[in-house]
Design a protein that fits this description.
Layout (H helix, E strand, L loop, with lengths): L8 E4 L9 H28 L6 H29 L4 E3 H34 L4 H4 L2 H27 L8 E2 L6 H5 L7 H33 L5 H29 L8 H25 L2 H20 L1
Parallel strand pairs: 1-3
Antiparallel strand pairs: 1-2
Keywords: Cell membrane, Membrane, Olfaction, Sensory transduction, Transducer, Transmembrane, Transmembrane helix
Organism: Echinops telfairi (Lesser hedgehog tenrec)
Main location: membrane
Length: 313
């Protein structure tokens, strides 16, 4: 008997364990999603319209905001629909597509954060030649390289997962097609498959994190040699928002994707997944807005212009 799932559908069990909370979860996640979209769009528009923000740091931030917005669009609309739906079914091609884009964009986010750390190092270490070293072309190439690596890693993961044969159970113990709950349904999932997926996840998470830490080691080595306390404070303050986002992003992602798998932890993983699919994209624009005076000024200008436009109508 052939158990391969071509043409089959899965059941996204998701929040079905909490039937009394589904409407409340819908309201909370819906408004969080709207806030994520509004905040990230505001950041992108502010960077586009403010000439003083046309620098490499804000170019990368614009790329990160766009990637975060796309990541949430892959997961949250489907999650909201399933919270109100009685079926919660997803076809195998839809499941594979969701996994592909989620991990592709997630990998892209990781390497954009690494590029941002290198940008901060270049700005602090070589401020006089900064704009020659970090041209718009180089920044664009780094964004494209981040996207390409994310897509290639994601494609390899998806091919590994969906070339498996699935057994009779088709219930995914999650609200989206994440790796662990999907491979748990496979009949021929082996240690080799587990190692391939682990190495790929580690390459993205640990690899990009090492690049970030190397940049910060060099940043610290430069900053401690600065003669004035004011100069040291200014240098560290330019990195504070990025470092905060890095801690939030990698803390949640590593706690899910780099720990041993077992079915008993799926409820815990699902709750953690809500954090990095909803809360993290919500916190990122807040962190960059609250800790950055230039961004605050640009955002107020954009909102002021929007208000005047609405009042005229």
């Amino acid at each position: 008997m052939n158990n391969h799932t071509t043409g089959d559908t899965f059941l996204l069990w998701g929040f079905s364990s909490f039937p009394d909370l589904q409407r409340l979860l819908f309201v909370v996640i819906f408004f969080s999603h709207v806030t994520i979209l509004a905040a990230n769009v505001l950041i992108m528009v502010a960077i586009k319209l403010s000439h003083n923000l046309h620098t490499p740091m804000y170019f990368f931030l614009c790329g990160l905001s766009f990637s975060e917005t796309c990541t949430t669009m892959v997961i949250i609309p489907r999650m909201l629909a399933d919270l109100l739906s009685g079926t919660k079914m997803i076809s195998l091609p839809e499941c594979a597509t969701q996994m592909f884009f989620f991990f592709g964009l997630g990998g892209n986010n990781c390497f954009i954060l690494a590029a941002m750390s290198y940008d901060r190092y270049t700005a602090i270490h070589n401020p006089l030649n900064y704009h020659m070293l970090m041209t718009r072309k180089i920044c664009f190439q780094q964004i494209m390289a981040s996207f390409a690596v994310g897509i290639l890693v994601s494609l390899t993961i998806v091919c590994t997962v969906f070339n498996l044969s699935f057994c009779d159970s088709k219930t995914i113990q999650h609200f989206f097609c994440d790796i662990s709950p999907v491979v748990l349904l496979a009949c021929d999932y082996t240690f080799f498959h587990e190692m391939v997926i682990f190495v790929l996840c580690a390459f993205v998470l640990v690899g990009s994190f090492i690049l970030i830490m190397v940049s910060y080691v060099f940043i610290v080595s430069v900053v401690v040699k600065m003669p004035s306390a004011k100069g040291r404070y200014k240098a560290f303050s330019t990195c504070s928002s990025h470092l905060t986002v890095v801690c939030i992003h990698y803390g949640f992602a590593c706690s899910v994707y780099l720990k041993p798998r077992n079915s008993a932890s799926f409820r815990e993983d699902m709750l953690m997944a809500v954090t990095y699919t909803v809360l993290t994209p919500l916190l990122n624009p807040i962190v960059y807005s609250l800790r950055n005076r230039e961004m605050q000024t640009a955002l107020w200008k954009v909102m002021g212009s929007a208000n005047r436009l609405i009042l005229r109508k």
